[in-house]
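Entry 14. Structure prediction run on the chain below.
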Amino acid sequence: GKVNLNFISIAVERHVPVLCEELGIMGVDLEELWLRASGIGDVGLARLCQCLRDCPNLRVLILSECGISDAGLAALGRDLHHLVQLEHLDVSRNRFAEEGQRGFASSLASGPAPPRVKELIGIELNRYTTELGLPGEHAEAKAEQLFALLNGARLIQGQEIHVAPNRGPVDRIRGKFAKAATQDTFLVNLNFIDMQDPRVFGVVLEEIDAHRENLAELWLRGCALQDAAALQLAPRLKQCEKLEQLLLSENAIETNGVRALVLDLALCPRLRLLFLNHNRLGDGGLLCVGENLFRHGGLKELHVTGNTFSHEGERGFAKALASGPTPPKILTLTGVRLNRYVRDMGLPVGLGEASNADIFNFLNDWRGNQRSTVDKVQGAFAQRSGSSGKVNLNFADLSESDALTAVLEAIEKIGNEDERNLQDVWFRGCNLGDAGTRSVATALRGASGLREVVLSENRITDGSVIAVADSLGSWPNLAVLDLASNGFSDAGLLAIGRNMHLCPRLHTLSVNENVFSPDGVRAFAVALAEAPPPPALHELRGIRLNRHVRDMQLPPALDDTTNAEIMDALHNDLHRKKKRTSAQRIRRKVEKSEELSGLANLNFIKIDHEEALDMMRDEMARQGARLTEIWARGCGLGDEGIAAFAQHLRFCPNVKNLILSENAIGDDGLETLAEYLWCAPQLESLDISGNRFTPAGERAFAIAIARGESPPPPLKVLRGLDLTLYCGEIKMSRGEMSLAEAMDGAATNASIFAALHRAG
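Output returned:
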C-alpha cells in the first residue's frame, strides 16, 4: 500500500493526469503516498486534491520540498477531509508564508470534519487557534490534540465521518471490473489479489463472463493461480474476442494449465501480449507453447522468462517453431535465446547473432513459405514499392547462378523504369562472395537513389570491396554502408577511405570484424585527411581514429574523442585550417569579452614570447576598462610576463576575478604582483596556485601588499598562499604596529586584506 515517488520530477500537464488516473484505479488500496521534492507545485497539488477522495485509507502523505505556496496549501486544507484515515502529513520546506498557514487553518475549521492527524510537519498549527475557532488555552497544544478537537467539534455539530474500510478481495474484484467498464480501454488490473480461495476466483470467472464482449486487457500477476485455475480460466477467455493483453506472470501455472491457455486463446484474434514469466512451465510447458504458437498470428510479445527450462527444452521449443506451421512475427520473446539453436532449426549460420525478432521474421517470411530462392528474390523486389523502396534479401542464399541472375535482372529492370525506386538493398549473409558482390555493385551503379547498402557476412575480400568503393560516386544519397564480418583487409579499407567523400550524406559505416593491421588503419585515417572533406559520420564501427589524430594533422586535443567528433573535424576541414597565433587569440578573446559580461578567457594561451606579451599589454591598455574577469591559467607567463601584466593592471580598474595559476611565477614575479595589486581596487578573488614561488617569495608578497602606493583591494578569496603565516611581518600603514597586534581574533586571508584596506 506504499507508493514512493520521492525525487521524481512530476510535470503538471504531463504526469499529474497519469498520477490521478492511477489513484482512481488503486487509490482504495493506498496507505502511503510519498512525493518529496517532486516539484508538483500549486497547480499539480490542486489537481491531486481532487483525486484524494479515491484514497479513503491513506495514512501517510509526504509533500515536503514540492514548491507549494499559499494557494496550494489552501487547496490542501479544503480537501483534507476526504482523507479520513490520515495520520501523518509532511509539508515542510515549501514556499508558503505565514498567511498561507493561516489560510490552511481557516480551511480546516470552516470545512467538513478533518481527519485525526497525529503528526503534522511543516506547520505550527497551535499559532492559529483563533483561525481554528478554538479557545486560546490550546495555544501550546500539539497538532494531534488540535485535529482531535476539530474532528470532535464537527461531530458535535451533527456531522459524521464516513470511513471506507479496507475492502475484501471480492469487493475489490467487482470494483475493478466496474471501474474498467467506464473506461475507453477495458483494462482490469487484479494484480496481487490472492485468489487461492475458490470463492474469490469464482467471482473473477463470473465477471469475465459478464464482460466478455468488451474485455481488452486482463492483469492477473501474482494472484497464486495454479493449473486448476488456468483450466477454468482458459474456456472463459476464448469467448473474449477483444482480448489484447493477458498478464499471468508470477503464478504457479504448469504444463497442463499452459496447454489449455495456448489452445483456447487461439480464438482471441486480437491477442498481442502474453505474459507467462515466473511460473512453473518447465520443458513440457515450453514445448507446448512452441508447438501451438502458429495459432496466434497476431501475437507480438511472449514472455516466458523466470521459468525453469533446460537447454534441451529450449532446443525443443526452437525446433518446434521451425518444423511446424508458420509462426507469428513476434517482436519480443524473453526467456529463450533462439540464436543458440539456429543449426537445430535448419537456419543460416549467419543468424547465430540475430535477435529473437529477426529469427521470427525469418521463419515467418522464408522458412514458412518454402519458396525457391528465385521466387524469394522476385517477391522481395516486387514488394519494394510498398516498403519505401526497400529490398530485404538478408540470409537468402544467392550463391547459385540462377538466384544471382534474378537479382541482377531485377536491378536492371528497376533502372529501366526509375532508378529512384530502389533505395535500400540488404544482402546480409547471402553468400555472395567476391564474384557476386562485384556483379551486384556494378549493377547498382545506376541506382542513384540508394540510401542503404548492406553487404555484411558475405565472405568479401579486397577485390570486391574495391569494386564497391569504385561505385560510391554513383550513390550520392547513400547514408548507410555495412561491410562488417567479411574478411577483407588493408587494401579494401584504403579504397573506401579514398572515395568516402563521394557520399556526402553517409552517416554510418560498418567495417567491424574484418582483418586490418595497425598500418592499414593508419593509412585509412591519412586517406580521409588527404582526400576532399569526408562526410560527418555519426557511426564508424570497427576502427578507432583517435589513435591517429596526429597522422591526420588534427589538434592533439582530439586524442580522447569519439570517431564521430573526429569525422566532424575532418568534415569541417579543421586539419587544413591555419592555426591562429597566440597574439591573434589574445586579441580575439579580449574582443569577445564584450559578449561575456567582461570575461577574457586566456587560459592555456602561451604568453611566453615577445609578440604575445606585446599584444597582452596593448589589449589591456586599449580595452582593460571593460574587463571584469581575466582568466590566464597555464599561460607560461613566468616572472617577466607577470611583471608586464602587473604593471598594466592600472588599465583594468573594474576587474574582480583574476586567475594566474600554473604560470611558473617565482619569488620575484610574486613580489612584483603584490606591489601593483593596488591598481585593481575592485579585485575580490585572486588565484596564484600551482606556481613556483617559495616561502621567501610568500613573505615578500605579504610585506609588499602593505607598501603599495594605495591600499590593497579588499580581497575575499586568495588561493595558493596563506597570509596568516606572516601576520607578524606585515606592518600597518600607520606606525610600526604589526598586523597580528592590530587584529582581534583568528586571522584569515580575507580579514587581512580587509584590515589593510581599512588602514589605508
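The longest helix spans residues 401-417.
Filed with the rest of this week's runs.
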